[in-house]
Each structure stands twice: as C-alpha cells, then as structure tokens.
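In response to a reviewer's request, we include the raw inputs and outputs for one of the modeled complexes. The two entities were modeled together in a single run.
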Amino acid sequence: MKNMVYIQSGGPTSVINTSLYGAIKEAQNHPDKIGHIFGSNHGIEGLINDDLFDLGLEDEHTIELLKQTPGSILGTTRRKLPKDFHDPIYMKIIENIKKHNIGYVFINGGNDSMDTCNQIAKLCEELALDVKVIGVPKTIDNDLAITDHSLGFPSAAKHVINIVGQIATDARCFIHGKVHIIEIMGRNAGWLTASVDLLPEASRPDLIYIPESIFNLKEFMEDVRVIHRKRGSVVVAISEGVDFPRDVSNARRDSFGHIQLEGGAAELCRLIDEELNLPTRSIELSIPQRADAAYISKVDQDEALATGKLAVQSALKGETGKMIIFRRLSSSPYKIEMALEDVGKIANEVSMIPQEMIKDNTRMGDAYRKYLSPLIKGEIALEFKDGIIVMAELKKIKV
Amino acid sequence: MKNMVYIQSGGPTSVINTSLYGAIKEAQNHPDKIGHIFGSNHGIEGLINDDLFDLGLEDEHTIELLKQTPGSILGTTRRKLPKDFHDPIYMKIIENIKKHNIGYVFINGGNDSMDTCNQIAKLCEELALDVKVIGVPKTIDNDLAITDHSLGFPSAAKHVINIVGQIATDARCFIHGKVHIIEIMGRNAGWLTASVDLLPEASRPDLIYIPESIFNLKEFMEDVRVIHRKRGSVVVAISEGVDFPRDVSNARRDSFGHIQLEGGAAELCRLIDEELNLPTRSIELSIPQRADAAYISKVDQDEALATGKLAVQSALKGETGKMIIFRRLSSSPYKIEMALEDVGKIANEVSMIPQEMIKDNTRMGDAYRKYLSPLIKGEIALEFKDGIIVMAELKKIKV
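The model returned the following structure tokens for the whole complex.
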C-alpha cells in the first residue's frame, strides 16, 4: 500500500483548502489503497527537503474548518522547477518519494504549478516509478487554459462584486463626491475586474478597464471629467494589469535598480489630480480577494471539494500527468462535467476574456454575464466564535 | 400634527441606515403624533435648499433592506454650519422647517454633526419654535465623547478583525514572506486598529500601532528586521493617524499647495525597502471598513435600531438638544443602558483609548479586550440575490 502527498502551490484562494478537504475525505474512503495522507510543507519545498507532515493525525474539527480557512494551510511557494531533469533537485524529490513510499502526488495550483506537476509526472514515467501525479486547478485570475473556469475564481469574483458594489454605494452618497479608482487583481486577464459588470445599475462602476482592451489615457480623462460633472462622483474598476504610460521620474527603485511601479489606481489618481483637479481616492482590493471567507460561493466550494475527491479517485484508477478540468454543458440551468486533460497542454498557457464577451469600457456583453452568473450563486454558513471566523490550525506533526 | 425630518451626516457606517430604519418604524407607531416622515437630501443641505423627500412613500421591502445597505441612503455631506446665527443659512433652515411643518429633527452623525445638531437645537430654542432636535451617534472611529461606544464602530471593528486575521493567515503561508503593513481608519484615536488584538495568536499582527502611543521609527525598523528573520514574514497593523517623520521631497501637492501625504502604510513600506531591503506590501482597508454588510455585528445592528427608536420616543416626550449615549453596566454578561446627554457636551470632543487599556506595540491590555469583545458578537442573516447582496434603492419622491 502506498502513501499520498498533497502539495499546495502558488497564490492561495478562498477554497484552496476545500480541495484539500475533499482529497483527505476521499482518501479516507480507501484505507485499503492509501496508507498515510501527507502534507508537503510549503509546496514542492517539502518534497525536496523531506519536510512532510501527517494529516491523518489532525483533529476531525480542524479538518472540517479547512473549508473556511484562507491562505494555503500546508504552506506554499512560488518556486519553479528547472527544465533539466538532471538537476539535483529532482534527485532529492525522487529520494523522498521512495523514502516515504509515496504512490500518489497531488499538486493544487495555477499555471506555474501545473508546470511543476507536468515535470514530476514525466520524470516518474521516465524512471518507470509507480507514482500517479494529478493536478488540481486553482487561480482567482481564471486564466488557466482549456478549463471552463478555475477554482477560487468564483469566490474571488463574488468578493469583488459585493465589495465594489458596496464601495460604489458609499462613494455615491456624498454631495461632493470623489473619483474612486478600484484596482482589482489580474495581470494578464481581466476576468475578475469584469465581474463587477454583474452589479445592478445603482452600484455598478461607471467605467471598467481590463487588460484585454486598449487603455486610452486621453479618453479616460475625458470620460472621468464628463461623468464627474454629470453625476458628482466617479467609480472606476481597473485590472492591475491595465497598461498605460506612466511618469516614472519619481518612482523608487529596488535593490536591482528596477523601477517599482506604484499601483495603477494610485498613479491614475495622481494624473487626475494633475490634469482635472478633482478629489480622488485609490483603492486596492488586495489580499482579501483571495482570502475572505464571507463571500465564498457555494458553487465554488462544492466544486473545489468535488475536484479534491476526483483527483484521488483518478489517481487510484491509474491516471497520471493529468489536471482536472470543467466543461460547461449549460449555463441555465447551470450544468458542468469534470474531466481529465493532459497537464502539459495547460501549463503556462493563458486564457483571456474573448472579445465577443466585451462590449466597451462601461459594460461587458451578455455572454459574459451568462458565463459568470451561475458561478457566484449560493452562500455558505460560516462558523464564528465570539464574532471571529474560526480558522483551522494544523498541528503539523512531522513524518 | 407635526412632521419629522431625518438627516444623515458625515461618513457612513454599516449600520447608519439601520438607525434610520428604527426611527421610521417608531414614527409609524405614532400616526397620531407624527405626520410625514421626510428624509433630507445630502444631510443638512436638504434642509437648507428645500430638498426633502417623503420616506412614507417607499416600499415596505425597501425599508427592510435599509438594515443591509451601506452608504448613507439619504445622501450625506461634510458641511459644517457657521457659528453665527445671523448667517443667512439659518434663515433658510428655519424657513423650510416652517414651510414643511417640521416638529422633529433627527441628526445622525459624528462629532461635527453633533455640532450641527447643537446649533439647530439652540436656534429653535432661541426663536421659541416648537421643534425638538435629537442626535443619533455614529462613527466607526469610536471617538465620540461620553458614550461608552459609537454605533458603527462594532461592525467596523468586526470587519477589521476578520479581514486582518485572514490577510495575516494568507501572508504567513509563503516560505519567503513579505512585510505586510495594514492601514486602518482612525486619524485621532486607535480604537479600530487596536481591535485586531482580539485575534487568536496565529492570525494576530506582530505589531500594532495606534495614535495614542508614540511611534519610534528606529525601533519599528529593528522590530521588523528581527521578526522577519525569526518568522519569515511580518504583519503590522497601523492607524492612519500614526505620526512619523516622512520624506516629503517627492510628495505631490494639491491645488492649495498643501503636501498630499501618501498613506502611512505605503510610506513605511518605502522606508523598509530602503533600509532593510525586504519585500513589502501595503494594504489600506479603506471604505469596506464602513460599508461591508458581511461583518455587521448583531449587537451593533440591534443597538442602531434601538437608538433610532429612542430618538423618536425622546423627541415625542419633548426632549431637545440631546444625543443618545450608551452607559455600560456590565461587560460579562454584556449590559448597557441608553440615556440622553446634552449634545453640546459631546460636540467636538474626542475620546481616545485610555493608557490603562494599552500594553505595548504588540498587544492591548486585558481591559481593552473585555471592553470590545461583547460588541462584535452575533452575525446577521443577509439577503442575497444570485450571489449579490441586495441593497435598498429609494424612489426619493420630492416633497
């Protein structure tokens, strides 16, 4: 009987620990096939440095709390593995896989992590090791290729929609309102920023900018001026990845001499102040987009759990080098199916919003709303203690 | 029979519309004494410019939704009234009070708004007008004098505690972590920032800075350096009002030539980068602190509602020039009583955290935890539609 190891990789999402929960639960259904359930400390680092802990020794209640715990509970890393299999890192990984009799490796992550997944699967195959390697997708950016959507994105979108709607409502109640520029995560793809389009008219931003469209600074300034004159306030949603010419003369430099750009929202506020002389406020939604349990979507949570389970089931069936993907069968009623796809096809690809889903810089198209709407539905019941969300704390007992 | 007018003033809180809800409900209990229920558009501006709307014409469901709607639904202003009663503004106010047969004026706001409340009450008294003026307290800063706490503060604290706890959990899962500096509202008083002290050890910030304590930049740098070396990451909570010497050579200036200081968190990150060469991330919690319905405290909501009701009852009893205050009878079990206090005593005073509640820059004292703990308890059930919080939208039918 072989043991399994679960790896969390890259940036967290609000449901990344729910996938882990699903995998643990499913593994416990097969005590005849899976021995120990190990967690790798800080992503792939744990497997490299023989730093694993036994998740079978954690309390039942702690495991239940994974579903409402932010961050990556096993610890994470952004380390990329080298291309060359002769690198000594791979020797260490294989050594630890053998030492701990590991037959199942699960890697839960985004694009870079699927590359890691691909590498380890290939290496085990080359060495003819009986190790199954399965990828569990996650990224709040929703930019993984092939799959209909990525786990964590629906909850992040739900957070963004509700928080931006509430900010806009607050912003618009002042008689002399400001220009509010709200910066939303997404360097390459605008899925998360575009989600604000689902808000009703009263709380929807006036302007929406995503990296998929060209940002024209001159038009932006004119739009802001006109909207402020008409409405008394302006609310703008922009992706962090929106590109525009910036004055870098005052920018600070890091130790390598690279220019450190301030956030786009802060810089646009500075330009508005200079050119239009209007009061401004820049708001970065920041880490709560991927960490706030209050807006976890039930659909996202259910799917995260199901994916963890399916990962274990697939490995037990002998699948390897695959990632779980979603295929949408219908948006209304919402129906998806899960499937397996070669992880090599997914790794390092980027999925952007297709042009037919974009209308202009004030609205997305109907197709976008139809796509996103079912994903954010359903609320979850959170466990609070004295007003504070209870988070899982692992004992992390070393193997 | 006289009419009433309700005024919302200054910055919103997550429960400011709940006080309005309470006042409307109570007024509707006295159809023999109160005629129309008017809302003043954008705070005192509506009463100055004859811009009132009839809240009696709104739908029942819209009124219910006030309890989960952010912003100030009637519109707000930060305008201060002049000291001199001969100012023509007062003539306009009195004219509109007479024109609309107003006998009851309710002003829901913070320190500056209580000054407005005081002025109007005094003026009506001087002119021997039969108009009762009552103040309803609110401010997320919790810095109103005399009262045990201010409405809106408990929900803002609950938001801050939960969001900071989740940010810290996310921040600490990386193997090479950053220095996270989280900026929390509160220019003069640190009540809101200090609230993070209630978090359990695993998610509590390493350092907590409030305006009530002296901030030593040199010690701060050394603490950050030591904690990062030991823990691999640092989480710092600071009040926006924390004062330290800043490099203003690159600062932008507004149209009056005043230096526009960047947020303290961003500036401290810049200094850490320069001196310690550690990766940093600055996070401003910003508007969601006063606008996020997800973390409304049940205690805060119940008290906001009760205060709206008591304001109407007090005016009907003939009270005027008073603000509602809370007196704490016991913390465990939590017991308060509401009372009336001369609004003149409250206006423009500031309540700071007493020194005996502060331990050092890593923890508050037990007395602080005992004070805050009961205020954040209890969650409310929110109405969502397709994953989005439903917010009240008033028809605002002009009088």
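As requested, we also summarize the result in words. Residues 2-152+293-350+379-389 of chain A form a domain with the Rossmann fold fold (CATH 3.40.50.450). Chain A has two domains: 2-152+293-350+379-389, 155-291.
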